Amino acid sequence: MGSDGDGDAPLLDDKAKRMRDLLSSFYAPNPSMLSHSPTASSKHSTPDDINSSSFDPNHYMNILVNNSNLEGLLKRHVDMAAEIKNLDTDLQMLVYENYNKFISATDTIKRMKSNILGMEGNMEYLLEKIMSVQSRSDSVNTSLFEKREHIEKLHRTCNLLRKVQFIYDLPDRLGKCIKSEAYADAVRFYTGAMPIFKAYGDSSFHDCKRASDEAIAIIVKNLQEKLFSDSEPIQVRAEAALLLKQLDFPVDNLKTKLLERLEHSLRDIQLKPEEIKNASPSAREVAILEFVEAIHAFRVIFPDSETQLVKIAKGLITRDFVITEEYVTTRICAADLLGVLRVIWNESLLMDEVLQDSALSDHFLEGAKAAVKLYVESAFSQLLLDISDCLLKILKRDETEEYSLETALDASTKLALQGGRNLLLDVCKILDDDSGIIDKLREPIIDWVQEGLQDFFRQLEDQFQSFSGKNNSSATQIHGLTEAAAFAGLVLVLAQLSAFIEQTAIPKINEELAVSFSAGPYEYGPAFVPGEISRKFRSAGDKFLQQYINIRTQRISLLQKKRFATPKWVKHKEPREVHMFVDLFLQELKVIVNEVKQVLPQDMRKHRRSNASSASSKSNSFREEKLLHRSNTQRARSQLLETHLAKLFKQKVEIFTKVEHTQESVVMTIVKLSLKSLQEFVRLQTFNRSGFQQIQLDMQFLRTPLREIVEDEAAMDFLLDEVIVAATERCLDPIPLESPILDKLIQAKLAKSLEENTSSS
After folding, report:
1. Residue 649 contacts by C-beta under 8 Å, 6 or more apart in sequence?
2. Burial status of residue 149 (CB atoms within 10 A of its CB: 0-12, 13-18, 19 or more)
3. Phi-psi region of 380 (alpha: psi -120 to 50; beta: other; left: phi over 0)
4. How far apart are the first and last CA of the chain?
5. Least confident window among 30-34, 247-251, 629-633
6. CB-count exposure of residue 5 (10 Å: 0-12, 13-18, 19+)
7. What is the pLDDT of residues 612-652, one digit of tens each?
8. The pTM is what?
């Protein structure tokens, strides 16, 4: 029984154990076995265990009295009485259940006794019948023994005669098989007769063996022809090889030749991407299926040929990818590349089903990796080439071609932005392919695109530098192709294109890149760094714009140099008209304005003209009035002093300011530099009165057309005045032209220019 502190579950466990022990003690055939079991011995080990056979009541009571108070003893008494009652009830139920089983078993035994009573007579009768059959069988066997021996002997003789007859008929049978090409039957007949030929072929059946061998030699020759025939189906050739092996022919010696023929036949199976693109049926599909069947047949014929077959299969895949790489460089789209890869992938799967453990899928993956990488690199190279061709058209154009700088800029900006975005969208189609071909190449493709963009913009910037003449060899080539004017237009387009790439193309392409091509870490190449590329193109754009200004100002400086190198200014004649140099200078400015308007945007900010413009004009007119109304002697003496005083009150004009990518800024900078250069040329000369007056006339005429070109009139007027002042300083007799004469010469020049424009139009 359990202790006082046990719950209901332990009490039920003890009760179940007691029930099992009671049943075991009642039904056990040897009650002594129960006392020797491990469980029983463990329970009988303590004398205070009430359920063990070694239970000691006195010892149990002493422990109970010593460990419990009166209330505990009473509670234990009540619990023990309840357990005794429960045990009595369980024992009673056990007796009732087993009593019913005893009654059922007794009835069954009675029925068995009644049924067995009549069986003994029947068994004796059956034994008599069996003995009778056995005796009769023995008598029959005894009477037929001699005849049976004779029949068996005759049967063996008949079988031997059949074999002999078969041997004699074998040459004829083989001849019929040769005529009907039933080589399988012929081999079966011959191999069946081989044991007899080995035993008696040199004696009794010598002639038959010789005739059969001759027929077999013909069969072997025919089978070899079938084996090497390209027109025969693969199944027929495989059957021929198996028959030769059955004839103990050294087929393994033919393996090398057959594999060479198989490999040679594959060389005619060329991958034709155009047929794949047009979805037209190809003979290649049939050839590949035949090759797969050939692989299967070879594995059956030559079990040790798998290594060579795998090599041939990999060679086929390698040749396919060589053709694919050539196809990739012909400006294809992503769909065309995926179509070719699917064809090669499906063929690899077909061959991989026959050549287990050949790793053809891994070989395909390596080829696909190289092809896709080449596709990405080729796409960037082609885009770079398109932009370069678009820019070089500026140099190669002639007067008959209508290819303006504006057209070149529009085309190149579209290529830089839309071409780059289209390239990314095209590669996205490869990444979106769900056929399983590109699953393992997604991260490398993203890395290749990131690296490709970085390299593309670097190479594009290098190409721009090369076109601008930074590279000496390239510069020589460029100047050999075109004149300096066209080259200046190219440099201007490069400047604006660089600014467009830095401000528009790179941010938008970077947005596309972040959506579809964001990954990391970059194991296969560096990531696209837009900040670095933007800085490169910002710097390049500023340099190109400054280079354009330098080219144009240098050309104008050449005109100025010729202008001041030709006449002797100290012996200059009296001016009668505006010098032709002014026309050439204005023509150059007209060309510059035309180029700038085609390429650069206008400055949308409102330009406020300097307040010093009006002050300067008033000062100039006031000074000129004073100069005209003074006498020549006074004017010669005081002109230099007045000039310096006027310069003190004029606004400071900055010549070398930062150039912006606008029409106004570029034109104004060129005008500033040209006038400043003109001032320096004037300072190097010495003028007489007429030479000084020619400079005055030219500068005064330039004021009106330059106001239509430049934005900052104050700066322009200041620089023109500086030229006149420089001429004054270098003049031996600085007496200017009077206003009526000056106006008359200017009006004559304007009328002449208008007449020339009317006649030319």
Report:
1. 615, 619
2. exposed
3. alpha
4. 133
5. 629-633
6. exposed
7. 443 344 344 434 433 333 444 344 445 444 554 455 445 55
8. 0.64
